[in-house]
Amino acid sequence: PGLAVYDPGFVNTASCRSSVTFIDGDKGVLEYRGYPIEQLAEQSNFLEVAYLLVHGSLPSKDEYDQWVHNITYHTFVHENVKGFMEGFRYDAHPMGMLMASVGALSTFYPESRNISDADNRAIQIIRMIAKMPTLGAWSFRHAQGKPYVYPDNALSYTENFLSMLFKMSEPKYEADPRLVKALDTLFILHADHEQNASANAVRSVGSTQVDPYSAVAAGVGALYGPLHGGANEAVLRMLKRIGSKSEIPAFIEGVKNGNERLMGFGHRVYKNYDPRAKIIKKACDDVFEVTGVNPLLEIAQELEKIALEDEYFVKRKLYPNVDFYSGLIYEAFQFPPEMFTVLFAIGRTPGWLAQWLELTQDKEQKIARPKQIYTGSRGLTYTPTDQRW
Ligand code: CMC
User: Fold this and answer.
1) Ligand 1 binding pocket includes 231 (Cβ within 6 Å)
2) pLDDT above 70 covers what percent of the chain?
3) Pairing between β-strand 21-24 and β-strand 29-32 as defined by DSSP bridges
4) Which residue among 39, 76, 298, 343 has the highest number of C-beta atoms inside a 10 angstrom radius?
């Protein structure tokens, strides 16, 4: 008591103990519950990874089937949620809609406030993983002025999401399996990242013992920002603004002069390379095989090459992060940039919930309440307005 360590941005402060995700930033290692991200991205699928994160171990066949069944049958949302979403302005940012509608779910499931009950926690986790694609897809349809598409429970998790986004007519939307696999892989890559800003927001709000919908809504809010999940949207806008390879040197000079940041570069923990960026590059090739190459790819590759050889970036250990290439893939899917962070949020939901669940089980965890170093005035005497104005 009385002693405060000044650590803005928690650069050197561990706020919790966690067994969910391991990162070795110097070696470029990322593991969920001990399994390397490369193996999960290659061999698993998003719902199995979600089970792994939430439950701590890989499922048996029965556990997996039950988990997928439960999630599939909770994809629908209450009709009034639809009405609520329809009330947004025509040009509402889908992340704003997602944040609000996830938060609104807490009012549809008031029992979710009983966080001390294990069965209750389990059902809310299933509901949230199930409903995020529905809310995300509807926020997209809303911006396009198109009718919302209901979930199709005959489809897989990721196919159903694509169907709710892109279905234009009956009887059903059929996605190219290579696109489904690529999007599923992107969800896996985004599923958790230990104490990132949004997980920290979920934990901080969750530490007040509020319901998980409210805690996850806080996570969505944190993810919305351009320095976190919003970076993929910012990368796309940046590449479009650069416009051609010949403009890259002038752009890089501007970054070095401190005019702006090279979006999609740099990371608080990865100081060698971001293992997710490597996997995404491969997914890029798979997607472009179906959709044709995104013309911005050339600019991105050249930008990466120049930056990786430039002393400014080398000295500061700035490498491409997960967001540098993900936006190019999303654009190939014909998502507008505002949707990119929604895709990130859907992928990150199991991670947020695993972090939240761990928090609720942690007896050492207290309400998150950092100290401050006070720099303001003290002991002033209030002067009434008739003497000041
Ligand atoms: N472009 C140019 N310079 C940079 C960049 C960048 N992208 N990132 C860091 N720097 C410089 C920064 O100016 C500072 O230089 P100096 O020492 O001369 O003052 C130095 O590198 C250290 O930067 P920092 O801001 O102290 O690093 P941080 O660990 O606080 O920030 C970061 C990490 C991700 C916020 C930052 O690298 C950044 O803003 N990157 C661009 C945004 C981005 O791509 N974000 C996505 C992150 S990965 C996915 C996610 O978490 O959502």
Assistant:
1) yes
2) 99
3) antiparallel
4) 343
Cα–Cα distance between 51 and 47 in angstroms, integer?
Answer: 6
Indicate where the chain has its CATH 1.10.580.10 domain(s). 18-226+342-361
Going by alpha carbons, the residue nearest to atom 9 of ligand 1 is 266
The structure's pTM equals 0.92
Indicate the CATH number for domain 18-226+342-361.
Answer: 1.10.580.10
CB atoms within 10 A of CB 254: 12
Query: Which residue's entry shows tokens 């949004």?
Result: 198
pLDDT digits (tens, 9 = 90+) for 350-387: 999 999 999 999 999 999 999 999 999 999 999 999 99
Give the position, in ligand 1's atom list, of the atom nearest the Cα of 228. 52
Distances (CA, A) of 98 to 195, 222, 315, 346: 22, 12, 38, 10
Q: What is the amino acid identity at position 381?
A: T
Q: Tell me the residue type at 177.
A: P
Q: Among 169, 105, 101, 106, which residue's Cα sits nearest to residue 342?
A: 101
Q: Where in the chain is CATH 1.10.230.10?
A: 231-332
Domain 231-332 class, CATH top level: mainly alpha
CB of 261 closer than 6 angstroms to any ligand 1 atom: yes
* Rounded-to-integer distance, Cα 47 and Cα 158, Å: 9
Burial letters for 321-352: b for 16+ Cβ neighbours within 10 Å, e otherwise? bbbbbbbbbbbbbebebbbbbbbbbbbbbbbb
- Annotated active-site positions, please? 228, 267, 323
What dihedral angle (degrees, nearest 10) is formed by the CA atoms of 24, 60, 156, 119? Answer: -90
182-238 pLDDT, tens digit each: 999 999 999 999 999 999 999 999 999 999 999 999 999 999 998 888 888 889 999
Pair of tokens at residue 121: 């926690």
| Distance from Cα 267 to the centre of ligand 1, integer Å | 6
